[in-house]
Design goal:
Blueprint (H helix, E strand, L loop, with lengths): L30 E3 L9 E5 L1 H6 L10 H6 L12 E3 L1 E5 L2 E7 L3 E8 L8 E7 L14 E2 H16 L6 E13 L3 E11 L5 H9 L3 H15 L9 H23 L1 E2 L21 E2 L23 H20 L2 H8 L2 H16 L9 H14 L4 H8 L11 H4 L5 H17 L4 H11 L7 H12 L4 H10 L30
Antiparallel strand pairs: 1-3, 2-9, 4-5, 6-7, 7-10, 8-10, 9-10, 11-12
Helix pairs in contact: 3-15, 3-16, 4-5, 4-7, 5-7, 6-7, 6-8, 6-9, 7-8, 10-13, 15-16
The structure holds adenosine monophosphate (AMP) and magnesium ion.
Length: 502
């Protein structure tokens, strides 16, 4: 028998990294070709080897001065075709008109190895200078928010949640004015497409239905090719995006991730987590928690995310109406959201609790758990990780968990129900622990961890960014040498505020 040859992934140098310009095949009204604006004396803050491997780039290139210049926007490589795409959107529920890209410049795309799910990865520089869509902005991004985006993109990938990726983050000592002066940085983001719900809304609200159709056909051809021969391709597209969005939000809820700014211009047409800003991971459980200090009404609180995901799909449905034709067909495509969300969510909670079967009273078990977690302000990530250590036979292992609850009797009552539930399916402790540890991360990007890394980076020490990246890329691994990174947040962390300023 002839076996196929097994080849290692290609490790190309920067010069060998071929790039295409798929997005530029759209008509010129979709974008503006432009050059990035250089930043003085850029330096590498951190590169993600995993992201480099994904595009077949040799990670040794991170330290090549040409790489650093190119991925700061100072050196236009021959394979780059820089452009800024146009889009609009709803911000905090209000139509805001044209918004972007004000500070993201697309460089082109890279064809991926045939074994990858996606065929291409687009590369984009965030913070590489102003564009015709910058409005009043300076086209820059600050070190603080860039480190957060870099780390969280890679952390989400480590959690197995659909997301844009980050190849690297570079910095410069050039000052950028925010509430106070900060220094500039550039994140190189990667995604099969950065097209947003707001990209469609842009053409709908400008009554350019021809462009709307071109965009929908482009997205279907590039990213949903299996819909091309569908009898109702635009309705099918809306349905697919609705499904992906519902599943994505369920995954967010399952790890306590809050995006913070779920405006329609931050919603990926591929169902990816996109545009990391004032995001947060739930610590002391509070469903009303608002991670974005600017969001005073709590529109984007943890508990509101599922319905906001649906609301955003409605905004996309509105924009696609001229292509779909009938209002009822739009509603039909959107109507699956709740059931897809509920079934994904149900499966995720079930797995987090280590249950292998689904029984009628499980929902009550989950609801009562969240009630006692809220009343006792239990750390979300820590609790689920610790729960895996429970013995189904005896309460000898309960101390660590029980000690976290002020209301011990509430804990005892719940854990008693949980133990009987485990017995109902004859759950085996060791095997269940392994399953639970594969879905309940030990490490998430807590705000205070990011803050420590940012403060060191502001002093030119990038070691903590590197360390966090390494830890967060394997969030389900025990990594006992990094136990401290799984600890509960220190008292000072409660005063951290993260806002839209970036
Ligand atoms: P965001 O709230 O970060 O998703 O940004 C909304 C829009 O404003 C996006 O299109 C950004 O490109 C744009 N934007 C944000 N900050 C800046 C900035 N400093 N300069 C130019 N455009 C910006
Ligand atoms: Mg955005």
């Amino acid at each position: 028998m002839n076996y196929p040859e097994i080849l290692p992934p290609p490790h190309r140098s920067l010069a060998e990294l071929e790039m295409g310009a798929r997005f530029a095949e759209l008509p010129p009204t979709f974008y503006t070709r432009l050059a990035c604006t250089p930043l003085p004396a850029p330096y590498l803050i951190c590169g993600s080897e995993a992201a480099a491997n994904l595009i077949g780039l040799d990670p040794a290139e991170f330290h090549n001065p040409h790489f650093i210049e190119a991925f700061t926007g100072n050196l236009a490589l021959p394979q780059f075709s820089p452009l800024a795409a146009v889009y609009s959107g709803h911000q905090f529920g209000v139509w805001a008109g044209q918004l972007g890209d004000g500070r993201a410049i697309l460089l082109g795309d890279i064809a991926l190895a045939p074994d990858q799910i996606e065929s291409h990865m687009e590369l984009q520089l965030k913070g590489a200078g102003s564009t015709p869509y910058s409005r009043m902005g300076d086209g820059r991004a600050v070190l603080r928010s860039s480190i957060r985006e870099f780390l969280c993109s890679e952390a989400m990938a480590g959690l197995g949640i659909p997301t844009s990726r980050a190849l690297c983050v570079t910095g410069s000592d050039k000052y950028v004015l925010r509430e106070s002066p900060e220094t500039a940085a550039v994140v190189t983001r990667m995604a099969p497409s950065f097209i947003r719900f707001g990209s469609f809304e842009h053409w709908f609200y400008n009554q350019k239905h021809e462009e709307l159709k071109i965009l929908a056909d482009y997205v279907i051809a590039q990213s949903y090719p299996y819909l091309q021969d569908h009898a109702h391709p635009y309705q099918a597209l809306l349905k697919e995006v609705t499904h992906r969005t519902a599943k994505l939000v369920a995954q967010w809820q399952s790890v306590g991730f809050m995006h913070g700014v779920l405006n329609t211009d931050n919603m990926s047409i591929l169902g990816l987590t996109l545009d990391y800003g004032p995001f947060g991971f739930m610590e002391a459980y509070d469903p009303g928690h608002i991670c974005n200090h600017t969001d005073q009404q709590g529109r984007y609180s943890y508990k509101n995310q599922p319905q906001i995901g649906h609301w955003n799909c409605y905004a996309l449905g509105q924009a696609l109406l001229p292509l779909i034709g009938e209002v009822d067909d739009v509603h039909a495509a959107l109507s699956d959201y709740e059931s897809v969300f509920e079934s994904s969510m149900g499966q995720l909670w079930q797995a987090k609790l280590g249950l292998q079967t689904s029984l009628p009273h499980d929902q009550e078990l989950i609801t009562s758990l969240f009630m006692i977690m809220q009343h006792n302000r239990i750390d979300f990530t820590w609790f689920f990780r610790q729960l895996a250590h429970l013995s189904s036979e005896s309460n000898a292992e309960d101390t660590a968990l029980r000690d976290m609850f002020l209301d011990r009797s509430a804990f005892d009552a719940w854990i008693g129900q949980y133990r009987s539930r485990l017995k109902q399916e004859n759950s085996q402790d060791e095997e269940r622990k392994q399953r639970m540890h594969a879905v309940n991360p030990k490490y998430v990007l807590r705000n205070y961890l990011a803050q420590v890394a940012i403060e060191k980076a502001q002093q030119k020490d990038f070691s903590e960014v590197e360390k966090l990246l390494t830890i967060l890329q394997h969030p389900f691994d025990e990594q006992p040498e990094h136990d401290a990174y799984a600890a509960l947040p220190p008292a000072w962390a409660s005063s951290l505020e993260v806002s839209c300023s970036s």
